[in-house]
Design a protein that fits this description.
alpha+beta; 19 helices; two-stranded antiparallel sheet; globular
């Protein structure tokens, strides 16, 4: 039997296209007034790292002030599955011939609250706080020896099967009815097993959402682990009345060669409780040189380990995966050990320490953790805001879609892209004058 793709291709070269899907909630207003929209962006995971980080490579897919993230994700999955079944015809400008593209969903990006909502999970505040496994329990259980070991044991990582109703009763009822129909015994076949039903549901939905919402390092590491250590360090330095000394050392620091954004010590020290990701990424690289005689040795050891972790996680490529993962697991264990000495309670009260347990599995499946970064998509929100400003507000999501579709068409033509001319039945591109 010939391969179905071979029949679909009809002699053309086929390329698979992994699609990164990002879903977020964002305000449709540039002002502080909250006008909630759910937006969907996408990127081609085949692009080189230096290209995928650029705003140019982010594509707007959809937005809605009314549809929930699950409904948007379902529509995106249906579109990707349809394109994968039928193929997308395109022109290969390198080899000058027609090819067939077969897209598939690579993984779903987002911050931790959004990923929890996509998994129909109650989020970080519930007892079973992990969307990937069933670890957790009451505070007393997590504080016990058995519960604490479960938090950081890979063996306890089991796929979650429960759901939480976040206003998605219609979808849940649909799944229940689908399950009842599948479980119903037919005259010509016996009752289906639970494993067979699970496999069929995953096939129809097109994604295993619990395993395809990765540990995102911006919100988990920079706005998690690094932020916690920064808060404790600032508390110790303020108590010793050495904040002015810390600022003076920051001012005298030479940051050439560190590839840091604008490093403004006065801002960092004055707004020390309201820093963002870029500040924490800078601090993770320089803090050991600034506080070596201002904090206890355990806190200094913590910053040394954090610096090693940040360097590992921001690798753009991995030459030897086994060595890389061994180094990450080792430094992650060191980080837990130092944290247990400095502030043991946050290991059981802050779920983000547990999320790093799953990171090696995601790296094995998807590649370097920097690929999971959501900064490129969150910075693209500004482009979305501009499209909303010039909307007539009668149908904001429709206007945004029309605006981005027109912009993408102009960009494709201006960059010498090809399109199919149905009248002349040939592939065309813009002339040299364009």
């Amino acid at each position: 039997m010939p391969n179905p793709i071979q029949q679909l291709a009809k002699g053309r070269m086929c390329y698979t296209v992994p699609v990164i899907v990002f879903i977020d909630d964002v305000s449709g207003n540039v002002s502080k007034q909250w006008n909630k929209h759910h937006v969907v962006y996408a990127s081609n995971a085949n692009l080189p790292q230096e290209m995928i980080e650029k705003e140019f490579s982010v594509k707007f897919v959809s937005s809605s002030p009314h549809a929930s993230p699950i409904e948007l994700a379902k529509a995106v999955c249906d579109s990707i599955n349809s394109a994968a079944q039928n193929g997308v015809e395109a022109w290969d400008c390198k080899y000058d011939k027609e090819v067939l593209l077969l897209p598939y969903g690579f993984f779903f990006g987002g911050n931790n609250p959004m990923q929890a909502e996509e998994c129909s999970h109650n989020g970080l505040g519930c007892n079973l706080f992990c969307r990937t496994c069933k670890v957790g329990g009451t505070k007393a259980h997590k504080a016990s020896e058995e519960g604490f070991l479960e938090l950081f044991s890979v063996d306890s990582a089991r796929q979650a099967t429960g759901v939480w109703d976040s206003g998605l009763q219609s979808i849940i009822h649909t799944l229940i009815e689908m399950g009842k129909q599948l479980r119903k015994a037919q005259p010509d076949k016996s009752q289906a097993s639970e494993d067979a039903i699970q496999k069929q549901l995953e096939t129809e939905l097109g994604v295993n959402i619990h395993m395809d919402t990765f540990t995102e390092i911006l919100h988990t590491v920079l706005l998690g682990v690094v932020k916690y250590f920064w808060g404790q360090t600032v508390h110790i330095i303020e108590k010793a009345k050495s904040l002015a000394l810390l600022e003076a050392r920051m001012e005298s620091l030479t940051v050439h060669g560190l590839n840091l954004p604008a490093f403004v010590p006065a801002y960092i020290c004055h707004y020390r409780g309201g820093l963002i990701g870029k500040h924490f990424k800078s601090l993770a690289q320089v803090m050991p040189f600034l506080i070596h005689d201002l904090v206890p040795q355990d806190v200094l050891d913590g910053w040394n380990v954090i610096g090693e972790l940040v360097v590992l996680l921001w690798h753009t490529s991995i030459e030897d995966r086994e060595v890389y993962l061994a180094c990450f697991i080792l430094f992650y264990a060191f980080a837990r050990s130092v944290t247990a000495k400095c502030a043991p309670s946050i290991l059981i009260t802050k779920p983000k320490f547990h999320f790093l347990v799953h990171l090696p599995a995601y790296i094995c499946c998807f590649g370097p953790a920097i690929l999971f970064l959501t900064e490129r998509y969150e910075s693209f929100n500004h482009v979305f805001w501009l499209s909303c400003i010039h909307s007539n507000r009668q149908s904001p999501s429709h206007n945004s879609c029309k605006t981005f579709a027109a912009q993408d068409a102009v960009k494709h033509v201006a960059l010498d892209g090809f399109w199919y001319d149905a009248e002349k039945k040939t592939w065309r591109s813009a002339g040299q004058g364009v």
